[in-house]
Specification:
The complex is a heterodimer of chains A (419) and B (308). Chain A has 419 residues and is an alpha/beta fold. Chain A is built from 16 helices and 15 strands. In chain B, a hairpin with a 5-residue loop joins β1 and β2. Classes of the chains: A alpha/beta (419), B mainly alpha (308).
């Protein structure tokens, strides 16, 4: 992409003119319908976005370097795959998507700075990006100030709704409530022990879980523990678990701590086929590092698992493996990131425009029937209607789905009675 | 929280908790030993210590995959081979780094902080480029997995015992090397008075290089051992660096015994507090205690008496 910019405007203009001239005879032969697919640029772009007659620019903003690269690599891959597929099928409003990728470098101020660059310098029509809540919070004011459009893929704590963001992951109530109901009904769970990393997402999620357990299920939380990010020694808390003997260990530990936690749990002789463990922070991506043997038997609740059986997902998994290698695993967020470009495309087509205001207005009630997770619909609150699934980790590193919510769950980022 | 339990249950828990503390102690000693050699003996603030550990972890990962595909029959003992290779790899890298970078900065100790910080970033990104951004899973031989059933209720994790054994071995080895061998004598001589050591015919540059290599090599072994209990990824080294410096500084930089004493007191405080309070609170209280003690004894727990 950089190579294109090295030519001066003069030569680029000449090339375009020549191409235009060359195409005149060809145009005469084209049927009228060929033009219907690509409405004129002046009509689809009234706000100065980077849209030409043949191209529309979209940004990708994730961490390709730094701590978060572990998690965000999958999202970058999924978004590139989605964009490649859209381009293959003819693009959006007759225009191919051109990608400008920026690196947030796992540093939150960098996310804000790069977001500004993508919106102000590159005039991106939309940005697929951010992963941690911290990076989203840092970039959010930029998107609101310059009226950009962000597709955010991660499941997160909720308590947010912005005109300029479409949240393609689940918010906390969607992910948690159904799985707690399931574990209560299926395993007869009466007591819960919470273990989380010490930052906003686990704390908010556990707060919601606790309210649901105490007020709705009328059962008990017997322990709630938080550890600093990057904590690697869990033997003491494991002893505490042995002492309190909870029916369910409910975890939202993240990052390197996650690996240490499951390895030590296994070493301490806690057998996950006998002790029920429910996690909201382990996807196929994490199992890669934890090791399938160490976590086999644990239950994870997410909206998507790679092993999901449906025609959409089989196509998606095959295409993903073809592009990024057979061994690459696909986790929940990777799938959610894949939805972003498609949801944007459909909103643009519904609006007949790339203008952010019109795309946002058209977004509500957009349905994506080809989603790998099955079917999703954008709620007017910018989150997605989606199903929640509970799955059991297998030694192979994949999940076996044991439960699926019967209906789509309504996103509720500001749950009453849970705050 | 202890009201409803029988005396036997409580006894078992306290026994296991004692082991948890001892395991944490061994982990801390193993983490800190390499740094104690480098920072304590040479005065080099090595911010890339964690990355040398992770090099050891990646060597272990490569070994495990190699043995799995080519020598599955010997998989049970690959861990020992891996640890030796980890020592050699990290040690060799350490000597190269000393020769190209550190030796120019001995007179500017604060600059070594920046230089090694930069080195750690370079190493992290290299791991990311070579091994990928995702964490890798290291397969363990089956005898290292699970726990020993001491009584009906007391279970002790095998990999914890293994780490304890390794730590003891290496600590004794380093102790002998530093205080009973000719090389150790030279290292200590160079540390106490560089020009004088040079004057009596010690090749100070060579001693520096080997000392740095030794410290890095021990870090590599530690990293290799930690694949059993922690994660192996490009930035996993960062998880250990703060605790490592804390232990070495708290123990008194130039003293091996100090490092051990400090690891013991910090690990016991940490694991006991973690049991009775929550994880984050335990960490805060431990750090507060360390800060308090360092205010009273800025030189750390143990110091060598040196005439300056």
């Amino acid at each position: 992409m950089a190579a294109d910019n090295e030519h001066g405007p003069h030569s680029a203009l000449r090339r375009k003119l020549l191409m235009g001239l060359a195409s005149i005879p060809a145009m005469a032969m084209m049927p009228r319908s060929a033009f219907a697919a690509a409405p004129p640029t002046s009509a689809v772009n009234t706000t100065g976005l980077a849209v030409t007659d043949t191209e529309v620019t979209v940004g990708i903003l994730h961490s390709a370097t730094g701590t978060m690269a572990i998690s965000e690599t999958g999202s970058i891959q999924a978004e590139k795959l989605a964009i490649a597929q859209i381009n293959e099928a003819g693009g959006v409003l007759g225009r191919k998507i051109k990608v400008i990728q920026e690196d947030g470098a796992s540093d939150w101020p960098t996310f804000a700075e790069k977001a500004k660059k993508l919106l102000v310098n590159d005039h991106c029509a939309a940005v697929m990006g951010c992963w941690t809540s911290a990076s989203r919070k840092a970039a959010l004011p930029v998107f609101e100030q310059y009226n950009g459009l962000l597709y955010y893929p991660t499941f997160y704590e909720g308590l947010e709704q912005s005109k300029n963001v479409i949240y393609t992951g689940q918010e906390a109530t969607q992910q948690i409530l159904e799985s707690l109901n399931w574990v209560t009904k299926e395993k007869g769970a009466k007591t819960f022990f919470f273990i989380g990393s010490d930052y906003i997402w686990p704390r908010t999620s556990n707060k919601i879980a606790r309210k649901h357990i105490e007020n709705v299920l009328k059962t008990k939380v017997v322990g709630e523990e938080y550890f600093p990010l990057g904590h690697t020694q869990f033997n003491s808390v494991i002893n505490k678990i042995k002492l309190t003997k909870p029916d369910v260990i409910f975890t939202d530990v993240v990052g390197g701590s996650n690996v240490a936690f499951y390895k030590q749990l296994k070493a301490a002789g806690i057998d996950l086929s006998k002790q029920t463990l429910l996690t909201i922070s382990v996807t196929e991506d994490e199992i890669d590092g934890i090791g399938g043997d160490n976590i086999a038997g644990a239950y994870s609740c997410m909206k998507y698992f790679q092993s999901l059986k449906n025609a959409n997902n089989e196509k998606f998994v095959a295409a993903f493996h073809k592009m990024w290698g057979e061994k690459t695993v696909i986790g929940d967020v990777t799938q959610a990131a894949y939805l972003g470009p498609f949801l944007w495309k459909m909103a643009c087509e519904k609006a007949g425009s790339f203008d952010v205001d019109k795309v946002v207005a058209a977004s509500a009630d957009i349905e994506f029937k080809e989603a790998p997770e099955g079917y999703v619909k954008i709620h007017p609150n910018h989150h997605l209607w989606s199903k929640t699934r509970v799955a059991k980790a297998l030694p192979s590193g994949q999940f076996e789905i044991v439960y699926e919510s019967p209906a789509l769950i309504e996103p509720n980022p500001f749950p009453k009675g849970y705050q | 929280m202890l009201g409803d339990y029988s005396l036997g249950d409580l006894g078992a828990i306290f026994a296991m908790q004692g082991f948890a503390g001892l395991i944490l102690f061994s982990v801390y000693v193993l983490m800190a030993l390499g740094l104690a050699v480098i920072f304590g003996q040479m005065g080099v603030i090595n911010m890339a210590h964690g990355e040398f550990m992770i090099l050891g972890a990646y060597v272990t990962y490569l070994c495990s995959t190699f043995f799995q595909t080519h020598l599955p029959g010997l998989f049970g003992i690959y861990f020992f081979v891996a640890m030796i290779l980890a020592f050699l790899a990290s040690g060799a890298l350490g000597m190269i780094v000393e020769w190209t970078l550190i030796r120019h900065l001995y007179k500017r100790p604060l600059d070594t902080l920046l230089a090694t910080w930069g080195l750690s970033l370079i190493l992290q990104q290299s791991y990311r480029t070579i091994f990928g951004a995702r964490e890798v899973g290291v397969e363990l031989p089956s005898w290292l997995i699970g726990s020993v059933q001491v009584t009906d209720t007391i279970e002790v994790p095998i990999n914890g015992l293994f780490v304890m054994a390794i730590t003891t071995l290496i600590t004794v080895g380093v102790g002998l090397l530093m205080y009973r061998s000719r090389f150790g004598q030279q290292v200590r001589a160079v540390m106490q008075n560089r020009p004088m050591a040079g004057a009596v015919g010690i090749d100070t540059e060579k001693v520096d290089r080997y000392t740095f290599g030794l410290g890095c090599g021990i870090a590599g072994v530690a990293g290799s051992a930690f694949t059993m209990i922690g994660s192996t990824g490009p930035t996993s080294g960062q998880l250990y660096i703060v605790d490592t410096f804390l232990i070495v500084v708290f123990g008194g930089a130039a003293s091996l015994l100090g490092t051990i004493a400090s690891a013991f007191s910090i690990s016991q405080t940490q694991s006991t507090l973690e049991f009775f309070l929550s994880g984050s609170t335990a960490k805060v209280l431990t750090l507060l205690a360390v800060v308090g003690i360092l205010m009273v004894r800025p030189q750390g727990l143990f110091t060598l008496k040196v005439r300056r």
